[in-house]
């Protein structure tokens, strides 16, 4: 009976010694190092993921604000590109000296993110005259909505009566749509199918 107990104790001691011997073996030491390195790498990976998420959120927010801004001013992005715009005291303008009907002039300006010029004051009238080389240029003014009532098609404001030439507008007969052209610092009305040069203007919000 005693011998069996001694054998059992010896067995337990030998097993314990074997375990400790195995723990101190080069293989187990390398394994522990690998586990430690894995934990460190996992921590770094988690940190990198958190930073990436933060950066992603930052970029998304910035992009959203940028796109929202551009969306509100989409018509300004390419306004006047590839045109020789001229800056005057009252804004940015482009004069085209090719003689065309009013509708063609209006379409040209719109296709470049601009609009036919609208003139509200005598000082702007004098400024715009600086870029004229021909005698007459189309503006955005027309009475197409209400015969005899001339408005600027962009702002919908009525043409200042102080800017008309003497005896203008004469409307060329009842019911006939006419458009406004600029001649020598005064406004005239003419049939819209007449052909003149034209002046485009940069929208105010784009300047």
From TrEMBL:
Keyword hit for Signal: yes
Leader sequence residues: 1-21
Keyword entries, A-Z: Coiled coil, Disulfide bond, Signal
C-type lectin domain: residues covered: 88-201
Coiled-coil portions: 31-58
Domain of life of the native organism: Eukaryota
Protein name per UniProt: C-type lectin domain-containing protein
Annotated source species: Cloeon dipterum
């Amino acid at each position: 009976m005693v011998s069996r107990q001694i054998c059992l104790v010896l067995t337990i001691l030998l097993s314990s010694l074997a375990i400790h011997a195995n723990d101190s073996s080069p293989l187990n030491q390398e394994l522990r190092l690998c586990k430690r390195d894995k934990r460190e790498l996992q921590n770094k990976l988690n940190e990198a993921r958190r930073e990436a998420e933060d950066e992603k959120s930052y970029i998304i927010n910035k992009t959203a604000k940028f796109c929202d801004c551009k969306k509100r001013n989409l018509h300004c992005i390419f306004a006047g590109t590839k045109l020789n715009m001229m800056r005057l005291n009252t804004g940015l303008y482009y004069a085209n000296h090719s003689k065309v009907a009013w509708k063609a002039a209006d379409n040209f300006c719109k296709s470049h993110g601009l609009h036919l010029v609208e003139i509200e004051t005598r000082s702007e009238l004098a400024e715009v005259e600086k870029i004229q080389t021909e005698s007459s240029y189309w503006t955005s003014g027309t009475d197409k909505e209400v015969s005899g009532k001339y408005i600027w098609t962009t702002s919908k404001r009525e043409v200042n009566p102080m800017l008309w030439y003497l005896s203008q507008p004469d409307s060329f007969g009842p019911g006939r749509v006419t458009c406004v052209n600029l001649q020598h610092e005064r406004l005239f009305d003419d049939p819209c199918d007449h052909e003149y040069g034209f002046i485009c203007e940069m929208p105010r919000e784009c300047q």
